[in-house]
Design brief:
144 residues; alpha/beta; five-stranded mixed beta sheet; globular
Length: 144
């Protein structure tokens, strides 16, 4: 999570909402990193999770990320949850809950919705939650 928090800080420094992510391979090696890039690109899909998942898929040469873990500083939204499921990520670890748009248990629980035709990933929530939430609070307080 420390590495994901570094990515989130870099996003904030670039004027992006401070969310960072990384995908770890089955051996724990970092396969891809990401941070929000929606403003810089401009691209509405430029969420940290999607950037990291794309990088990991390129690194593996496969769209299926068997045995990998996504680590992200903020609970994934519905769009990111869909990509997580499509990539068949078996494990998602996140920091802060997203009480407005979260799709891993706060507003929605798409990741663990057994009606979808994808394997249900393990979800570990609240890892370094205070640090992740503080980055977001500070970022938005400075913008108001």
């Amino acid at each position: 999570m420390d590495r994901a928090l570094e990515e989130a800080r870099a996003a904030a420094a670039a004027g992006e909402i401070p969310v960072g992510a990384l995908v770890l391979g089955p051996d724990g090696a970092v396969l891809g990193t990401g941070r929000n890039t929606r403003e810089a690109d401009p691209d509405p899909t430029g969420h940290a999770e999607i950037v990291a998942i794309r990088a990991a898929a390129r690194a593996l040469g496969d769209r299926v990320l068997d045995g990998c873990t996504l680590v992200v500083t903020l609970e994934p939204c519905a769009m990111c949850a869909g990509v997580i499921l499509a990539a068949r990520l078996p494990r998602v670890v996140f920091g802060a809950w997203d009480e407005k748009a979260g799709a891993a248990g706060s507003q929605y629980d798409l990741l663990r919705d057994g009606r979808l035709p994808h394997p249900v990933p393990e979800v570990v929530a609240g890892v370094r939650e205070d640090a992740a939430a503080e980055l977001l609070r500070d970022f938005f307080a400075a913008r108001r």
